[in-house]
Structure formats: structure tokens, C-alpha cells
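Example record

The entry below shows one chain as it appears in the dataset: sequence first, then C-alpha cells.
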Amino acid sequence: EEATEELLRSRYRLALISSLRGLALSEAGKYREAISAYREAEYLLYKQEPQVADGVDRSGLLNFIAMSYQAAGSFESSNQNAELAEKVSLNKGLDREDRRYEPQTIGGRALGCLLSYGEDFSVIGEGRTPYGFSSLRQYELSLGIQLENAVMLGDLDHALSLIEKRQDVFESEDGDVALGRRGILSSMNQKAINLVNLQRFDEAHEAFQEAAEKALDWNFLESFFSNFKNSYVVLFMAAEAGDPIASVGNLRDSFALLENQKVRYAQEIKKDYIDEKTTEDPDFAYSEGRDDPVVQERVNQRLVDFLVIEGQLHYYIALHAAKNRDREETAREADQAKELFDRALKALKDEGRVPGFEAMRAQLNRARTLLLTGELDAAIRELNELADETYEYNALREYWATYRSLGDAYASKKDFGAASRNYDRSLQILKDFPDLRYRVANRLSDYFDSLATFYIQNGRYRNAMQSLELKRQVQLQNQFLRYPLRLSNAIEDEQHRVMMEQLATLTSTARQESIIRLRHEDPDSIARYNDQLRTEFKYVQTNLAQSRPLLRPFLLFDESVPIATRGDVLVQFVDTPGASGCLINDGSIRYVARSSKDNEAFVLSCMPEKADRLILIANTTVFQWRPHRIIQTNRPDLPDPV
């Protein structure tokens, strides 16, 4: 018996060394070697005689094997190990082990060390290790790994079911402690983000609002603000996309909700302040004259967020009114939006937060509001100032949006040359910063539609076709680089993985560069790094496109218009807010505006007199009309359309 115990102790020590080696290899990005090290630890503990019963050690090793497979892009293998870890944890029993304890882990038993892991030891986010987790924590972690795999594989329906399963666990087993409550909020956030990706804006808005309410109930004020702001971001995304959730009625109803959240937030700040003072002095008594100004100052630190959101609500109501040609309501709502943006900018300036991201966005929103009210010269003046500022501080989203808005302003002034130059600049920004295309992907369909409309109205039909082609490419590319794919060979798979990784890195490092510039520190190092990453990204893109020509539209930002060879006729249907008709390319390009409400008559009006080959580019709406059948039935003299 003594010999057996000594043998087990030796195996624990060896397993500890192997698992620590696995951690080090994983941190170094050597995921396959890390998996081998974890497997070795698993073998030492569980695959030899005398066997050790499955426990928290094994579920921890399996979870970290799963995370290494995940990091290596092997999501199916990752799932297999995470699912096994889930079963092992369930068999062990979902014990939280709140007390400070000597954990039943490799490290705890082998080294006899006392590790203090209580309820605040987080399994959410970075810094996870295989040691110190109770069986409940391992179970929660295994569900989190499976969730990320589902998202990466694009199985968003399964991801939603995993989120709900994980949330149920946090609520039933962990709802009474801070970690469990944060886990509940994390699950609700993930659910909302998935719903946004599915374009289910109404459910996403509701999920963020629900998370904000819970965060406020539990006095997690930072979490409240991130969820509260995200709920309105979703609402404004829906407004840009024309989703019914962003109706004027819903936008107006949001004012009451916003005011209620503002009042509740102020109450929680006051409660937090009283708790803080009572901890310092048990005899503390709140005095309105002395303490109200302190509490109000803390509330005012978030005043800008409320002002900007309220301003944006008025802006989108004004936008609805402008589309309905209601000048009086447009002016009234736009004036209120401008006043709120002005107050937000003043508050930011008083707090020393100008320049800054919030200030640049408030300035951009103010300028867009000026466009609505026809104050074009003032809008152009503010946008030109903002263009310099956004460039200086590497605020790429605002930089691109500023030039787009400048194009809109000059187009409204009928200065089509200046409008074209600014639209060209906005397009060049998207070419120069490929990572930006993925960060503003939800706004690009509307952007390219507006470009196509502008060019059609100015008789520049080739440019209109180019804009619609770029819109198609962006939609393909956004899907192509959203999830891991299996291409024709391992080299192409690796190229695809590298591009996804570089985009993820640039999302973080581009913001780091902005923050460094805003602090007036030296940005040269991070700027060179970002430039190098973009150069490498473009190189891998081009290389893959050359080896797989059929993937070109999924990879390259190419403005070329499909060339009509002799006898070919290409018909592209157009349905944008400002243009409805078709572009016909038979070597030269012309535009036919829609003159009939009848779908069949419209399709036939776009047909040429003759063609050796007829090629249709139909949007989703036109495709539902079955244009092929309309043409075959009514124009049998034309070839079957491609």
C-alpha cells in the first residue's frame, strides 16, 4: 500500500510537469505539442494501473486539450474533448467548493500546496489554467469551449442552445455569487451578439436590455453601461438597415426607457457611494448638502453616454421624417439632436476628453444632422475638420464615415465633382485598410447602394456597375472570412486561418494605435506593426486568389465590370432607395429606369432586342419573381438566361 501511494505521488509529479509543459507550449502557439503534453499527463494519471478515478483533474486536462485544438483550428476535435470534460464533470457532481480549499488537482496533491481560489476565481475570459477549478467551474468552462466552437463553425442555432444551457447552469448553481452573476451576464451578452449576427435585431435589443437590467440590479455598473449602450447600438443598426424594430413608434418609446435607466443609474450610484462610506465609517449618515454634489459628479461622468444616445434617437426620427418629406418634423427632431450633441461635446471638453472617440462620434453625428436640415456649408466645414482629426488619431471607422458624409454633403449641393472626389476617398480608405471592411461590414451594403444611385443619377453607369460589384464582393468576403473553412488542401486551409487571425489581431492593434495617438505618445512602433500586418494580409489574399482563381470575388476588392464579349448581353437589376431599374451592358452600358409597377413588364423592359448569350445579375427581390421563366415565356427568341 505504501509503495502504491509513492507510485501515485510520483505519477502526479510527472503529470504536473507534463501539464505545465503543455501550458507553456500552448502560450507559445505550439498547440499540437501542447496537446501531446496534456495527453501524456492524462495517460500518467488515468491510463495506467493502479487507475485513478475520474475527477476534476481529468476534466481540466480535457478542457485544456479542447482549448488547444480550438486554437489550432480543429473545432471538431475540440468539441469531442470538451463534451467528454462535460460528462466527467457531471459524473463528479457539480460542486462549487466556495471555501478556501486545497484543491483536488494535480498541483494541489503533488506539491501539497494550499491555493486560495474562492468565488472570485474566474473561468470567463483570459488567464484560465487547469488548476484550482471545482467540477462546476470545469463544467461551465467545457460549455464555454463548445459555444466558441459552434460560433466559429457558423452553427449559430446550436450556439444559442449552448448559451441557454450555460445560462441555466449559472442561474441554478451560481446565481448567489458574483462569479455566477457575471457568468449569467456573459451568457446573455453572447446570446445577444449571436442574434445580431443572425440579423434578429429585435431579439438582440431585448437581450441587451435584459442584461443591462440584471447588471443594474446586481450593482455591476460597468456591465450595465456596456449592455445599455449595446442595446441602442443594435437599435441604430436596425434603423440603418430599415428593420421594423426601428420604427418611429419604437424610437419614441425608447425615450421613456432611457429616462428610467438614467434615474435608476443615479440611484445605484448613490447606493454605491453610501456603501463605500459606510465601509469606511460605520456611523456615516448621508447629508444632501455635503454628499449630493459628490454623487452628482459621479453620475455626470456618464452623462455624455445618455446625451449621445438621446441625440441619436432624435436623429433617426428626423431621418424617418425626411424620407417621408415631413420638413417640419425633420427640422424639429434635428434641432433637438443638435442641441444634445452640443451638450455632449461641451461635457466631453469640460472633462478633458476632447479629442477622443466619443467626441469624434458626437461631432460626426452632429454633422450628419446638419445635412438633414440642409445646413450644407456648416456640415462640410465640420466634416473637413473631423477628417483631419480622425486621420491624425487613426480613428478608422470615423475617418471613412467622414469622407462618405462629405460625399453626401457635396452631392446635396449639386457639386458632383467634389462629391465624386470624396466618395473616391472613402472607397480608397476601404482599400487601404482591409480590416476596416470587416469592422464596418453591416454598413457597406447601404454605402455601395448610395454610390450606385449617385453614379446612375450622373449618367456614370460603369461606375454604378462597379459599385454594385464591390457590394457583392464585400458580402462574399465577409462570409468567407467569418468562419474556418476546409479548402482544397492544407496550405490553403492555413492561408485562410492566417487571414482570419490577422483580421482579429488588427481589430485590437488598430485601436491600440488610436489610443497611443490620443495620448500623444510615439505611435511609430505600433503603426509599423499594423502596416506590416496589412501588407502580409494582402499578400496572402493575392497568393490564394492566384492559386484559386474561382475564389477571387471572395478575396479581392476588384472594381472590374464583367466584360460583355461580342454577342453577350449582361443585365443587372438595380433596386436602391434612390434608383430602381436595370443596367444593360452589351459593350456599352445604358440604364433603363423602371416605369411599370408590374414585375413582369419591368423584367421584359430590360431585355435586349437580340443576344447570343444573356446573363442576368438579379438581386434577391428580382430572383423571387422567377425572371428566367418570364423571359422564356415571353421572349422565346432570346437564349435561356444564365
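Notes for this example: The first strand starts at residue 568 and ends at 576. Residues 229 and 305 are 8 Å apart (CA to CA).
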